[in-house]
Every structure is written in C-alpha cells, then in structure tokens.
Amino acid sequence: MRPDQLDRSDPEGAIAATAARVSNWGRWGDDDVLGTMNFLTDTKRRDAAGLVRTGRSYSLSQSFDMDGPQKGWRRRTNPVHTMLDTGVDAAAGVQGFPHGIGGADDVIAMPLQCSTQWDGLGHIFDHGRAWNGRPAEQVVTSLGDRVTGIETVADLVAGRGVLLDVGRALGEDGELPDGFAITEEHLEATIAAQGPTTAVGRGDIVLVRTGQLTRARREGWGDYAGGPAPGMSFTTAEWLQATEIAAIATDTWGFEVRPNEFDHAFQPLHQIAIPHIGLFIGEMWDLDALADACAADGHYDFFLTASPLRITGAVGAPVNPVAVR
User: Fold this and answer.
1) Is residue 201 over pLDDT 80?
2) Is the pLDDT of residue 124 over 90?
C-alpha cells in the first residue's frame, strides 16, 4: 500500500484490513511469547559474530539523567538520580564501617520508557487483544505483564544489526524533516544506496536513523518527546512483516511518523506491529556515531547486543545497545 492510498478519515478500517494481511497470530503456536524474536536463532547470532572487523564498539544509548527529553506527558518524566551514601559521608565517618573503609551508593527513579528502550509485546493492544490474540486483561494486570514480560527476551537480543541511515540517504544535511513518512520505497532506496551490507532479512535487528536526534541536540529538545517527528509510515506494516526482522529501532520518540497519517489517530502502526506482528520496537536510540562510522567505510552491518533490563513483568525496559564493528 502507498501513502496516497490511505483513507485519512478511516484509521479503524485501515488498521483492521492491515492486521488481517500481516497478522502472525498462531505462527509459532498458541503459547508463543517471543513474537519476531523467534527469527533470531542461535545460528543467526553465531553468524553475526563474524561481522566484527575492527573490534570498535559504539553505545547506542542516550543518557539517563534529568536533562532528558521527557516533559511529563503520560506521566513520563526524566530519571531522578539520588545519592544514598557519598564521599562526604565517608569523610565524616558516619557510615559505620570498620577499618576506614567507605563507599558510595545511589538510587534511580524513572519510567522504564523515558530514554533509550524497547517496547515489549505487552505494551500495545488492539481492541482489547494483546500479542497472539490473548485478551489484554489476562496478559497485563496491576502485577505487570504476566505472559510476555520483557524478561522473556532478556537473553535473546543479540545478533546482526543493520543501519538504514535514511536521514543521510534522503534528507538535507543528513536529517529528515518532522512529519516525513518513511515508506517501503524510501527504505529500499536507502538499502540500494548503501550497498550489499545493508541487505535486510530474517532475524536482523534494523536501526533506522532519521536525524531528528541530531537536530534536537543542536536546537534543544523542544517537542522531541511526543511531538512532530519523521518516522515509519503506516504503509510499511507489510514490509515489517515480510522481511521477518526480529526488531526495529529508531532515533525518535515514537518510531512512526508524527503527526500520524490519519486525521484522528494515535500511533496506528504500533497497533499493528506489536500485537499483530509481534514485533519489538526500540525508540530514542542514539545512532549518530555509528552512522558516521558506517558511512566512512561503507559497512552498514555489525554485531549488536541490546538486551533489555530483566525487569519482571515490564512492558518496556531501558537498554544500552552496543554495536561492535
């Protein structure tokens, strides 16, 4: 489907029709909790290890601190980091330890999706249905996600990463403007421009750089968290399912283009990708340094490890992804 074929007045119809075309419900059995992580096999991880050429590693995480982009919408705030014990306490001799030993301890309070993170399979529902068709109320309760909590993939998210630098391939000065909808044609054009190391297939973890984070660093956060942004078009749902990728992440707050491509809608691609395709989505990843390195030598695939924090029952979790080239 092309963006010009969307009926902007009918998100309900478009979501229902697209879900029917791309649904992976039952593909790995009625009890499945891994979704597209089923594509990321041991063999895929072993092969991905062979992509390491220089040994240079790149953290793809933004900072977790009070200077982050969150403004409180949906009760998402920036992390609050508090010291429990400090060097001042040690010097004052008030810590109660023997023979002169002292130390520092700290604590952090934050929403799990306030900075670089994964969306888990319990994060989004479609008409009360979670991944694999389960009733949402039987999956996520006040006790957390009792079925597809993020801990189910804590030891799985490592394999071949592929960077699609759409911002550099199609944007002005390496950045796409807010509201730019990245279509399948844009993705394929980027793959063609970057060359054979960008081929996308089963079990890959795809990283899409738009350049919006670059702009936010230069101009200030503004509405980075929840406002207008470049991102994936709703019409990429078929591509996301057909490529059989394990996961996808972007450098934006919400993965898909904002404003969304319907007159009255909120994150309709999420409503397809997570509960129907079973796809893991990463947001607010810092891809700039990696993109510079890939552009410099023309290699756009690498070994990537990106396991979420093992927080039992969480529907999303912070991550410090590391790409090794």
Assistant:
1) yes
2) yes
Helix (H, G, I), strand (E, B), or coil: what is residue 21? Answer: helix
Label residue 177 exposed, middle or buried (CB < 10 Å: 0-12, 13-18, 19+): middle
C-alpha gyration radius of the chain: 20
The whole-angstrom separation of Cα 312 and Cα 176 is 37
Closest CA to 167 of 226, 107, 212, 134: 212
Model confidence pLDDT, tens digit, residues 67-117:
999 999 889 999 999 999 999 999 999 999 999 999 999 999 999 999 999
Cβ(258)–Cβ(224) below 8 Å? no
Alpha carbon distance 62, 308 (integer Å): 14
What sign does the CA torsion over 268, 270, 271, 276 have?
Answer: positive
Phi-psi region of 316 (alpha: psi -120 to 50; beta: other; left: phi over 0): beta
Per-residue model confidence as pLDDT tens digits over 266-283 = 999 999 999 999 999 999
Q: Is residue 157 within 8 Å of residue 205, measured between CB atoms? A: yes
What would be the CATH architecture of the domain defined by 3-73+112-324? 3-Layer(bba) Sandwich (3.50)
Which two structure tokens, joined as six digits, stand for 76?
A: 């998402």
| Helix-, strand-, coil-residue percentages of the chain, each rounded to 5 | 30, 20, 50
Only one residue has tokens 């594509």, namely: 39
User: Rounded distance, CA 95 to CA 102, Å?
Assistant: 7
Cβ–Cβ < 8 Å for 277, 129:
no
Q: Where are the domains of the chain?
A: 3-73+112-324, 77-109
Q: What percent of the chain has pLDDT over 70?
A: 100
